[in-house]
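Continuing the series of single-chain predictions for the mutant panel. This is the parent chain; the variants come on the following pages.
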Amino acid sequence: MEDKKTYLEEQIDAVMNENEGYTFTFQREKIKLLDGLEATMIKEVDPAFEKKIELTDDELLVTIHPPSTYQNYRILKRKDQKSKWRFAYQLVKKVQEHSMERLHLIIAPENIVFDHSLTPAFLHYGVTESIPPYETDHDRLMNEMKALIALSVDEKYPFHDYLKYYETLKLSETAKEILSKKNETELLEYIKEKIEEIEAEEKLLLHIPKKKWSMQKYIGIGLIVLLVPAIIYSFYSLFFAIPRQEAYVESNRLFLNNQYSEVINELSKYDERSMPQGVQYQLARSYIVTVSLTEEQRGNIENTLTLQADPQYFMYWINIGRGKNKEAIDIARMLEDRDLIAYGLINYQKEIMASSELDSQEKEQQVKQIEGELQEYRNELEEQQTEGEQSDGSNDSAAENQQDSGNNN
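Parent structure:
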């Protein structure tokens, strides 16, 4: 099975390889390029980048070697939050200052590198009437820029989800603010506000401890003397920790006796995130027995859901069982498991239809969005099945030809 194309590869209809540089391979029959000289325009931007253009009868290959001072976008996640916001600011400025009318930008994680000053640079540019994208689509560019900034500072979802499915995602307040901006000016103002907030916090962290050191020291001594930590711990153990541990022991006994509904009842008031992994596993298995699944589906899931599985799968089924379908979808997106996403969407769709908090128009709008995403999954599944049937047909034909050849001999 072929690797799934990245967003950039889909948009420019090319294959991108990263190996001691970045190579973009275009099929000439799919692009408008007529003469190799037309492609040389991309050498005019970022002259410090070493760029090589090769034109064959069938392909156009563009190879780019950035200077060693540039890093791949993936490295940004290792930076602190202030650095990420500075990168976002530089990205917006880079787009604003782009002035070469025949070169067209496309923003995607795989198309960006950045230097020590956190200034981004683009690897691929479209060329008018030669290499895609053939023109500048300002709406597309603005949406890509907002999605990449949300990915950079929020990191909860993949780039594609921020770009395509943000209306159905459970977004943080920061991501909501970014994705709501209408233009580059609004985006820059918001980014500057976030940088200023971080700088203000840094100043407080630097100066307050020095001014109030004596006060904090005596407060700490007083708390120790009064045994406040010990009292708090005793209270917590008596009313929370001990009953919870007893519930875990009882749920284990019920699970071993195949009393799955009782396992669910015993653990119903406890947060699944604070449970030990073994308890999460038993609760997830209990919900799988009770949720709406075909016997074949249930059997396949039970065979793969073992104690060694990623605990996020346990969290997914617990959320499904507890009716927290939106949270389950978020987990499935993080796992990039399309079957689980689709199952979660179907359940979420039923939840919306049954909701008394939404009016009919809101229900119709949300159900339509969910149905659109579900249709994408159906189409992809049909394509995969078609490719598989074609592959099987080709293999059968080859085998028959080989047998015929052997008979002739």
